[in-house]
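Task: sequence in, structure out. Protein: Methylthioribose-1-phosphate isomerase.
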Amino acid sequence: MAASAGDDMIMAPKKQEKREGIPRLMSAPLAIEWVGDIDGFVRLIDQTRLPSELVQIDCRDAATIWEAIKMLRVRGAPAIGITAAMGLVVGARTHESRDGLREHIHQVADYLRTSRPTAVNLFWALDRMERVADACEAETMPHEQTLALLLMEAKRIRDEDREMCIAIGQHGKELLANDSGVLTHCNTGALATADYGTALSVIFHAHEAKKNIVAYVDETRPLLQGSRLTAWELQQRGVPATLICDNMAATVMRQGRVQAVIVGADRIAANGDTANKIGTYGLAVLAKAHGIPFYVAAPSSTFDFELADGSGIPIEERDSREVTHPLGLAIAPDDVAVYNPAFDVTPAELVAAFVTEQGVIRAPYVENLAALRKDSA
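Result:
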């Protein structure tokens, strides 16, 4: 069951099933689904409504996809890329003939690129979809066949991401010791990917390996993705979790409660500089000060090898009301000046290792990440 964009649907998760060894709620849908055939649509969980309501929205045009990405109804770099790829299909479908189809597809892709600037997966997925459109044009394929191949590619991007998330979890679980605490920031689970997640996939797989892991979850101000989304996901999968305010991280580290920090990423430069949710850089500095390893879990699609370092990563600035009116409640004086960057950049020297679908990558990053680029080509 689902609602059209803007409509409400409350769904109470109850039952569980096993999927490749990791529990998943039968009544909790995937964050992103394609429903139907070529004339179908994209169904998303509206993550702005969690955890109080589990609501799905059906997106039947590119404008609804753009709004869902911009307003964080779908978020997380891999999930944004998958959604954009599927959004290109629904946008391409409005052009009803072969003549001019490729140009129309490029226009839709350019439009979707304006939704959010930082997550490289958005641009990577749209570039990949455009290459399919260009190949179809070169082969003078019929209109319907082009659309079918675009949908096939979007689903392939989704399926590849799911496989990468599983591999990330399998590689990364070896980094987490038994009877340990691991601190994570923002949301990097199934809600942010095709399934399982990146940093949370590591925690899920460690839990399934019977390691006694306690996850410490930063609330992640100002939009509370940690408290609203990550804590919810960990509960659903039966992983022991403790929610903390962002400014409590140093204390739990000093108290010896945390033995590792693991986060996701929205864009990683060729030298390993990492853009992630605002507050990540501070955690990396704290982890360094306390002698705690700081890990970044991300698929190869999150690495932007065209950027030499993090200085070239665009940082999105968002509406001041996200800070002054969290959840719609005014907590600051009217007209106060607000600075609200959505991301920060963690220097590569603070990262103990990157966990990718191809394995764990350690310094020196320029050389070793270049090998990842070659293997992913």
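Residues 143-172 form the longest helix (30 residues).
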